[in-house]
Each structure stands twice: as C-alpha cells, then as structure tokens.
Amino acid sequence: MSGTEPHGWETGQMDDITYVGLDVHKATVCVALAESGRGGEVRQIGVFENRSEILVKLAARLSKGGRRLSFCYEAGPCGYGLHRLLTGCGHDCVVVAPSLIPVKAGDRVKTDRRDAVMLAKLHRAGELTSIWIPDAAHEAMRDLVRARATAARVLSKARQHLQSFLLRHDQIYRGARAWTLAYRRWLTTVRFAHPAQQIVLQDSFTPSRTPKLGSTG
Which CATH class for the 8-125 domain? Predict the structure, then answer.
C-alpha cells in the first residue's frame, strides 16, 4: 500500500464513507462522488443550483440508509457558507487549498465535471490539504479589517489624485500640513476659471465627502 492511501483502506474502517467532490460557483455546484475503497465507483451526480435548500436536499438524498458523507471543495470567492451549511447538517466537509491540489503533468484541461470528479478521487485517497475555517465571528472581524484596509488605500489614492490636480493648476496650499481642518476649509475656497475643472474639484471634494477625504484617521 502506498504512503498516500488512507489507513482506513487497510483496516476496513472507511467502507461506509462516500467522498463527495464539489466544484463550486456563484450560481451552480457540480457534484461528483467516489465510493470508498480503491476500486470504488467514481461518478458525476450532476449540476445543481447553488442554493441552500437544494444542497441540503441533495445531501439528505446521498446520505440515505445511514451512508456517511465526506464533502470537499476548493477555497474560493464563495467563502465558507457551504462548509457551515454541510457541517451544520452533520456531515464532514473540508475546504482545500487550490495551490496544493496534486495535478498530473500535462493535465491542463479543466471543466466543472472533471474538477468535481478529481476532487472526489483525491479526497478518497487522502491527498488533499485542508485549510483552517474561521468561525462566523472571526470571519466578520477579518472582513472588517479588510474593508478598512481597502478604504484606506482608496482614500490615499483619492487624496493623491486631488493634490496632483491642484498642483498641476498652480493651486498650492500655503499652510503647514495638508488634510487638516484648515486645509479642508481652504479647499472650499479654491476656484477655477473653467467650469469643467471646478466640477472636478467638487466631485473630488464636496461637503458630503469631506469626512472621507478629509479624515486624518
């Protein structure tokens, strides 16, 4: 027996597990399964709408008769909702790192069906590397941190754009430091000869956007 084969094949402890590979997209989920054992059948089940009620019914259908299911899918933009849905129904589910999925040399053809089947087979063989799944609270805090980091980058870019625009037209602030309250007040006094340029300034810095562009936090 090779080193990558699960010990359960030798002991017979995995005979009642069905390995389910999921190729997950925003609108659909392609499903394939691999029966336990090295010679177990591998087949595609079909493509289903990516909706909680449909996937719960599918899992219930596949687990009829007490069959144990072990799901897997690649980490991606759809997040961890599917993992929480399936584990909440009592099923095992792992989310795997795409960069660590074994790929055969020269195998560059990717389709939803092939990906789902490949995941089911590799999951059965124990060749997938799972990632850590944050709980809902941890993920919410991580989303907040990312959102604030993105907002800070957007704010910095907007400030640079406005300052370059002002400098290009010889509108120079003579105060000590930009983006203070005095600087924001100065911006409201800047005037351009051409209406289009005044619109640029107003679109970049209006009273409603002052807290965003003017914040020093």
Answer: alpha beta
